[in-house]
Task: structure prediction
Amino acid sequence: MAQVGIVMGSDSDMPVMAKAAELLEEIGISYEMTIISAHREPDVFFEYAKGAEAKGFKVIIAGAGKAAHLPGMCAAIFPMPVIGVPMKTSDLGGVDSLYSIVQMPSGIPVATVAINGGQNAGILAAKILAISDAALLERLKNYSESLKKSVQEKDAKLKEVGYKTYLKA
Result:
């Protein structure tokens, strides 16, 4: 049974939402990924959101662009956390999506990450799940440590070769 639902309004959102899926895979969290247009197929959307709890989802990551109603509508129906991922758009650069997701009315919260922040959405979902899963919390700590080591390795390389050589590499 998948713990996280990843839903997006269009296949053009896939490169961003795949980053959430990749992070969840790396940490060992099950997920189900779906493309649903809340505007073009509202009946399918309502079935998805109403059935998410019964499917075992503990968190939904919802990505959307432009009017970006998908995350908010998920939050209105699904009783557990929803993380919104605003998509960068060609029209307004994703600010339209961001505003649509963060401006939810009282009582219908959507946790929101940066524009095109798929990876952070995956991390946030993992952190939410880790509240009640000690093994997952340990995997998250290990992941954070690997990020720290990566930065330290880059700094060591910079100090070794200098910035001009570093930039050419």
